[in-house]
Amino acid sequence: MSKKLAVPLLVLALFVIIVGGSWLRIFNEYWQVVFFYIGINIIMAVSLNLINGYMGEFSCGHAAFMAVGAYVSGILTVWWFAEDKVFGPPVLPASLGILLVPVAILIGGLAASFVGLLIAIPSFRTRGDYLAIITLAVNYIVKSAIENMEIIGGPRGFLGMQRVMNAITAVLDIPWLLIWTFIGGIGTIILIQRFVSSTFGKGVMAIREDEVAAGLMGVNTRWVKLIAFMVSCGLAGVAGGLFAHGPGGYINPGMFTILKSTEAMVMVYLGGMGSISGNVLSAVFFTLLLEMLRPLGVYKWVVIPLLLVLMMLFRPSGLMGSRELGDVFPQLRAWFGKEEEYAPASN
Q1: CA 220 → CA 201, 216, 321, distances in Å?
Q2: Nearest 5 degrees, angle CA 121-CA 122-CA 126?
Q3: Distance between CA 205 and CA 192 in Å, rounded?
Q4: Chain segment 158-204, per-residue pLDDT in tens
Q5: Triad 122, 238, 282: Cα angle to 5°
Q6: Mean per-residue pLDDT for 127-131?
Q7: Torsions phi, psi of 88, nearest 5?
Q8: Is the separation of the CB atoms in 249 and 163 below 8 Å?
Q9: Distance between CA 140 and CA 154 in Å, rounded?
């Protein structure tokens, strides 16, 4: 077995266990929802890590792009497959939903990527912390814009995605949303890993170390930053599209506030900037922590920041720092493809 295939195969095995267990009713509905949110958080954390970790910029409005993907994909699937007072009767049979709902989610990701491009063009003319200010403003702009669009429910929100999922499940009763979510999570991990390992991705990390020096070495810094930002925003849009079709099939602008963006940043810094393994572990840990502290109600947002403060005091680089599992546990290098970059020359 190729070592490069080890990680995808291990993740795929976990995916088969969870989805198969859900299909066979080994996991009850509660745990299916928990696994769903773990998948969403993995996509959000790993995608934001591309900007905040690998590129060294500071984006704090990731929820805005999640909202774009959620609303675009939700509108498309309701229009195609559900009876709705705005869009009328469905235009396509539910049997096509198995193939076209993922397409709608990808279209939502493309829409989020396009919005990211519109934000990145003026943003990357500046340097320093200006991107944080701009993305924070974009988060509020997107939320306010959606609240003023009465055709999609305005502040009341948009619903109908549950009818879409019910129609698809009636065709074939398996946990489709869980399948799509974990495929999205696996795809995000592989895409970001391949991106940062490529020659183009090395330019992203060069910008993090020294943007001026990277430019002098021939890296088109503005072009690299634009592409990286669009990839990150597009993946956030995919997460939003999946989120829109989650339990209840309902979204509203209040779900995509600065608090949602903060959750993504917490997972990035908790796991370690520049570590995909750390982001996956932190997404799992953070989701389970939220569930364990749910009985505390709003007080959990006192406990969680306190834990983060302690984390920053005693482990400021996060759980993994900039390392991967193969770096922390050398015995796993054979599985995670961590071979010596410079082998001794043969005579």
Answers
A1: 12, 9, 27
A2: 115
A3: 13
A4: 988 999 998 888 888 888 888 899 889 989 988 998 898 888 888 88
A5: 95
A6: 72
A7: 80, -155
A8: yes
A9: 14
- Token couple for 28: 């009850």
CA distance 279 to 269: 8
- Buried/exposed code over 70-99 (b: 16+ C-beta within 10 A; e: otherwise): bbbbbbbbbbbbbebeebeebeeebeebbe
Amino acid at 285: F
Sign for the pseudo-dihedral over CA of 77, 78, 79, 83: positive
Could you state, in order of their start, the residue ranges of all structural domains in the chain?
A: 3-258
Q: What is the pLDDT of residues 276-296, one digit of tens each?
A: 888 988 999 999 988 888 888
pLDDT tens, residue by residue, 39-90: 999 999 999 999 998 988 888 899 999 999 999 999 999 999 888 887 888 8
Per DSSP bridges, beta strands 250-251 and 158-159 are antiparallel
